[in-house]
């Protein structure tokens, strides 16, 4: 076998391995009714666990560039109710300005990738990079006041993806 052929086979194997790993992150990786042990065996340890009344949530953050956070929702019986990507405009729309607090936001969309405090406004921002509509590299910021209540949401292009070649974005 030539060196070039061997290199091509190794490259193909690496790509297939990467694709199968990505598949494990999707909604087809686990099914409602599975136990928490089954889900953890399939997906690994969650990044965070949240209580939600009689239910609890396992969070699977997929990193800044992964732009995804999946939540596995378990009922009181320990069985999986749902597993879904939560960094979507639909889920962000469930955050109520002036009503939602930090715990509500954590249960809806999980932990932020980045936090900042703006002393001029007195607001703390939690940032969530995501793929808006499956196409746009976006960044949603949720701003909290000193009491931990949401005061505004702000969505725009993710500066980590500098499509115009300006700044220090990662580009493509």
What do these coordinates show?
The chain contains five helices and eight strands. It is α+β, with helices and mostly antiparallel strands. The protein folds into two domains: 27-85, Beta-lactamase Inhibitory Protein, Chain:B, domain 1 (2-Layer Sandwich), CATH 3.30.1450.10; 88-172, Beta-lactamase Inhibitory Protein, Chain:B, domain 1 (2-Layer Sandwich). The chain is globular and about 45 Å long.
How is this fold's topology laid out?
Layout: H1 3-25, H2 36-43, E1 48-52, E2 55-61, H3 63-66, E3 69-74, E4 80-85, H4 89-92, H5 102-109, E5 114-118, E6 123-132, E7 136-144, E8 150-157
Antiparallel strand pairs: 1-2, 2-3, 3-4, 5-6, 6-7, 7-8
Could you provide a short overview of the structure?
This protein has 172 residues and is an alpha+beta fold.
Features of this protein?
alpha+beta; Beta-lactamase Inhibitory Protein, Chain:B, domain 1; 2 domains; four-stranded antiparallel beta sheet; 5 helices; globular
Number of strands: 8
In CATH, the topology of the largest domain is named Beta-lactamase Inhibitory Protein, Chain:B, domain 1
Describe the largest sheet: 4 strands, antiparallel
> What is the CA-CA span between the terminal residues?
34 Å
Which series of helices and strands comes N to C?
HHEEHEEHHEEEE
Determine the structural class based on helices, strands and strand pairing. alpha+beta
Number of H/I helices: 5
Estimate what percentage of residues fall within beta strands: 25-35%
Q: What is the strand arrangement across the widest sheet?
A: 1-2-3-4
- Count structural domains: 2
Mean pLDDT: 84
CATH architecture of the largest domain: 2-Layer Sandwich
């Amino acid at each position: 076998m030539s060196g070039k052929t061997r290199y091509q086979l190794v490259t193909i194997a690496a790509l297939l391995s990467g694709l199968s790993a990505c598949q494990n992150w999707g909604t087809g990786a686990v099914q409602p009714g599975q136990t928490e042990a089954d889900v953890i065996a399939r997906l690994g340890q969650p990044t965070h666990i949240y209580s939600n009344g009689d239910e609890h949530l396992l969070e699977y953050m997929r990193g800044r560039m992964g732009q995804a956070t999946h939540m596995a929702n378990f009922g009181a019986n320990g069985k999986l109710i749902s597993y879904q990507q939560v960094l979507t405009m639909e889920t962000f729309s469930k955050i109520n300005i002036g009503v939602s607090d930090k715990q509500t936001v954590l249960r809806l969309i999980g932990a932020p990738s980045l936090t900042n405090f703006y002393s001029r406004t007195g607001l703390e921002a939690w940032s969530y990079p995501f793929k808006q509509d499956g196409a746009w590299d976006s960044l949603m910021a949720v701003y909290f006041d000193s009491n931990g209540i949401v005061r505004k949401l702000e969505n725009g292009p993710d500066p980590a993806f500098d499509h115009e070649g300006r700044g220090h974005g990662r580009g493509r």
